[in-house]
Amino acid sequence: MRRILLTVLAFSLFLASPDTALGAAPAVEPTPAAIDRYLREARDSTGLPGLSAVVTRGDRIVHATGTGHDASGRPVTADTPMRVASVSKSFTAAAVMTMVDEGRVALDRPVAAYLPEFRMADPRAGRITVRQLLNQTSGLSDRTVDIAATQRATSLAGYLRALRAGTLAAEPGARYEYCNVNYDVAARLVEAVDGRDFAGAMSARVFGRLGMKASAVGDRVVRPADGFISLYGAWVSRAELPGFRGGAGGIVTTAGDMGRWLIGQTGHGPRMVTPKSLAAMHEHAPGTGYAMGWGEQVVAGHRLLVHSGNLFTYTAVQAIDPATGSGFAVLTNSASLYDDTYDILLGLVALADGRRPAAPGGTRQLTELALGLIALTAFGLGVLGVRRSGRWARRRAGRAWWRTAFRLAGGLVPAAVLATCPQWVSLLMNGRAVTWAQLTYFPAPLAITLAVAATAGLATAAARLARLRPVSIADTRPAVPEVSGRAGRT
């Protein structure tokens, strides 16, 4: 279910289980032709409208390329701007670490020491440290702050004001909980210490140092074309869902620029942070498996640092292999219930190991086909239920009212599931806030199927109720034999 509801809405952060291979194969360098061939096969098998990818080794980009098209019909290339959503978090952490290197920020000092405006209704917020923000162990949670209010903010300063009525879900440092608020607060910290807005600070501290000339925060400098959502297997172009874009998910970049970023994250190329700070970025908090914008996966014996992202119509994933100095990224201009980017990335890792990658794909199509069949079945049953409602009502005549009510209530279950859909999807996503608007994007096939089933159940229940006639005393009186006029005979 985690793989199907990604991202729903997400979506969870990491995909797939650790590989159980006994040891890593020797790293080899895949040829550009092999990478192009694999990506074409991957796009054909997944049906993705467009994707771009990059593979690096040491201080070199082995190959950056693209395939497919964007919403305007233009070919997707290594230079096509893409939103990378939560992959942005590792970039925000890097900006903070540049200030750590300068001695202007200390990881274990309270955030409030740099941001007096960071205040919440919970006094424990004053003890949150910079490190806890970046490791997602601050106690901040979608469940205890007004996420809707933060999404209406027009600046990072306004974002922090929207947090003031919120509380913490745990003691700072006590446990890990993935929450975008951590990285938007970190972005405001960057602004406050640097003196420039977040976009300007990122341009100077990260993009500029690495030569990432096609990257920016937000849409003002680099604007990607509209992306796609998958609707029962068909790709539909949609504008991105409006909302605040800051340190948690605001970066727009290209596969070519991602190559420069990955080279820097493996400790090669132009230096952005010191080796000590780079190591701190990649060291997960005890007991969490999460570092500063990086998670950890074991694939074919390799310990990879990985992070994925989903922003309703764009999906991305990045990975580095510290042992071999290899880097990988896959960006797509689409999003669906099943995320194919991680599977494609695993294929690139296999190529770099000298293994033959398996062609990904098929799961999205099968999942949405199943949902489509469920929707059609629910619609048919709803029509049948309305047409036979009179017969149903006649069979209920004379029966106890509570039995009839129980039978009617059964048809209302889909409506109850639909009405609480944001809540149970949030539960599946470990407490992440989910809105109705979000459910109309990559989870749209699921939401539509639930809506069809709910409508069918409500229509059937309403038709049955309308045809139930009031039960009279005669209906409930036991039948007795008819007595003739002659005494003693029946």
UniProtKB/TrEMBL annotation:
Q: What positions does the domain Beta-lactamase-related occupy?
A: 35-337
UniProt xrefs under Pfam families: Beta-lactamase (PF00144)
Entry keyword set: Hydrolase, Membrane, Signal, Transmembrane, Transmembrane helix
The protein's superkingdom reads Bacteria
GO molecular function annotation: hydrolase activity
Where does the signal peptide begin and end?
A: 1-21
Where is the chain membrane-spanning? 369-387, 408-429, 441-463
**What's the protein here called?**
Serine hydrolase
Organism of origin is Sphaerisporangium rufum
The organism's taxonomy opens as: Bacteria, Bacillati, Actinomycetota, Actinomycetes, Streptosporangiales
